[in-house]
Structures are given as structure tokens and as C-alpha cells.
Amino acid sequence: GVSKVITHAHTHTRTSASL
């Protein structure tokens, strides 16, 4: 639910930062 969305968003941001 919400937790999954937050985790996904965090992962996406982290990946973008790495790139």
C-alpha cells in the first residue's frame, strides 16, 4: 500500500542520484 509507494519513490530517487 502506502509503504510500498514510499519505498519505491525512495529507491527511484536513490537510483537517480547514483546515475
UniProtKB/TrEMBL annotation:
Domain of life the protein comes from: Eukaryota
Name of the molecule in the record: Phosphoribosyl pyrophosphate synthetase-associated protein 2
GN (gene name): PRPSAP2
